Amino acid sequence: MFEIEEAAKRGTILEFLLSDAGQIALWPTIKPFLTKGKTLYFSHGFGITFKEQTGIIPPADIDVVLAAPKGSGTSVRRLFLQGKGINSSYAVFQDASGQAKQIAEEATKRLLANPVMEYFEVSVN
Q1: Is residue 100 helix, strand or coil?
Q2: Helix, strand or coil for residue 40?
Q3: Domains in the chain: ranges and CATH
Q4: What pTM, to 2 d.p., does this model score?
């Protein structure tokens, strides 16, 4: 285990799996480590969708994706332990590398045993 800063420095896909308030509070810590070629991965979209209000504005040269289970964390874990999956959605908010959709799909597959996936194009102004 690493401290948050060390993990963010070393990681290529940064999973920002915190509550809305947690994302807002930790954003100044994470943002300096979002360098070209990295991916910022959300499991819910409030912070990035309302970026002007939350201040979560990613650099233009990173991918930003979402892989979201359609259930609570406890449901995801319970079903995982049973060898089952849960329906999920994934989205691409920003595709700097040209690979963001593939990254989001893979993140969803790794999150869930047998996902039924839905893909959404995201346009937030």
Answers
A1: helix
A2: strand
A3: 4-121 (3.40.50.720)
A4: 0.85
Alpha carbon of 65 to those of 36, 108, 111, 119: distances in Å?
Answer: 15, 10, 14, 11
Write out the catalytic residue numbers. Answer: 44
Tokens of 117: 């996936």
Dist. CA 106–CA 95, nearest whole Å:
15
Which tokens is 69 given? 């289970």
Burial 31-51 (b: 16+ CB within 10 A, else e): eebbeeebbbbbbbbebbbee
pLDDT in tens, 5-26: 999 999 999 999 899 999 999 9
pLDDT 10s digits, 83-124 = 887 788 889 999 999 999 999 988 888 766 444 555 555 555
Per-residue pLDDT of 47-81, as tens digits, reads 999 999 999 999 999 999 998 888 888 888 888 88
Q: Which of 17, 55, 56, 13 is nearest to 37 (CA)?
A: 13
